[in-house]
Amino acid sequence: DSRSYSTYLGGGATDEGEAIFVDGSGNAYVTGCASSGFPVVGAYQGTNGGGTDAFVTKLGSVGSNVSLSTFVGGSGDDRGKGIAVDGSGCQARVSIPLRTTCTRAASTNG
């Protein structure tokens, strides 16, 4: 059995994980869709923009700590469909392909 840990991630509504990326240090980056009530930590977007939003959450290598959790989305329904992390030095660049029904989804560089 190669399982390192299992954990629960979500809020009080319908939240769905779609993809996981594990970096070289064992940190897990998870994306999918979430409604209001999803936990946020160090968030780029601290509240749900409407409908369901994509989310990105970073779990530590043993799954017991969340060091980052943020919404990513606009006024319609948004869903993270995949995730990749390019770590260089102290910075991680996260890329998530979105499926969206809104006319303007949130985006950021870096």
Strands, helices and their partners?
Blueprint: E1 16-22, E2 28-34, E3 53-59, E4 66-72, E5 78-80, E6 84-88, E7 91-95, E8 98-100
Antiparallel strand pairs: 1-2, 2-3, 3-4, 5-8, 6-7
Largest sheet: 4 strands, antiparallel
In total, the number of strands is: 8
N- to C-terminal distance: 36 Å
Name the structural class: mainly beta
- Overall pLDDT metric: 81
Q: In DSSP terms, counting alpha (H) and pi (I) runs of 4 or more, how many helices?
A: 0
The gyration radius over C-alpha positions equals 13 Å
- State the share of residues found in helices, binned by percent: under 10%
Q: What strand line-up does the widest sheet have?
A: 1-2-3-4
Beta content: 35-45%
Could you give the order of the helices and strands?
EEEEEEEE
Low-confidence stretches: 103-110
Q: What is the molecular shape? A: globular
How does this model look, in words?
It is built from no helices and eight strands. It has strands spanning 16-22, 28-34, 53-59, 66-72, 78-80, 84-88, 91-95, 98-100. By secondary structure, the chain is mostly beta strands.
